[in-house]
Amino acid sequence: MKKRDQLIRIYNILYSFYGPQKWWPGDSPFEIAIGAILTQNTNWGNVEKAINNLKREGVMSVEGLNRLSDEKIASLIKPAGYFNIKTKRIRAFLDFLIDKYNGKIEEMKKEDTISLRNKLLNIYGIGAETADSILLYALEKPVFVIDAYTKRVLTRHSIMKPNSTYSDYQMIFHKELDEDLQMFNEFHALFVRVGKDYCKVKPLCKNCPLADLL
DNA sequence: GACCAGGCACATC
DNA sequence: GATGTGCATGGT
Question: Measured between alpha carbons, how far is A149 from A151 in angstroms, rounded to an integer?
Fold first, then answer.
């Protein structure tokens, strides 16, 4: 089967099995971006605790976070792990927004995807996946987000080789699929969902909706 | 107690 | 360019 058909088949199976995922879980583009940094190599449940701490303190905003000390930010995001590193990364992102966009993340939407992606990748602590998550879910740009679950599903189903790079994975989606913001949004979220439920490090392929494809 | 979780920067070869 | 390591909490 052609790769395009395999990918569409996977999407259709997952969408009928799970339905729409309504991503990203967050109230504003800024919260989504902060969540994208906090969830780096981290369980989402822990990230939610950190996000709730920030909201409870009323600092889930550029101005709110920017007036806190590093120590204060670190203490609030502690449940998300790597709190010292992530504090530096959040600080770098705040500096970027204040510097280039007067602290308004919505201002970024006007720019084209390629130059925005390069700018994001230039910020300390923002790599390919975090940049693409911000582009897709906060700025509503049609880029495909690749994460550990996406890689695992595609390698298990022999659509990609295990040693492929981030760009290799992303290229398949951009080359084989039509550019569709809403579909890219749902598809990535569905990969995460099936990854959490079945396509774990220790696979639970038995009742996986994608089991028939193996 | 080991393993895992919606990565990234940096050192080293 | 590929590979190895530190970063850290909380659930299973």
Answer: 5
Structure tokens at A160: 């990609």
Question: Is the pLDDT score of A1 beyond 90?
Answer: no
Give the CA-to-C1' distance from A59 to C4 in angstroms.
Answer: 37
The predicted pLDDT at position A56 comes to 98
Kindly report the bases of strand B lying within 7 A of a protein C-beta atom.
3-10
Do A68 and A59 contact (CB within 8 A), yes or no?
Answer: yes
- Distance between CA atoms of residues A75 and A53, nearest Å: 9
Minimum CA–C1' distance nucleotide for A40: B7
What is the nearest nucleotide to A188, using C1' and CA?
B6
Is residue A135 over pLDDT 90?
yes
Q: Is the pTM of this model over 0.85?
A: yes
User: What is the percent of chain A with per-residue pLDDT over 70, rounded to a whole number?
Assistant: 100
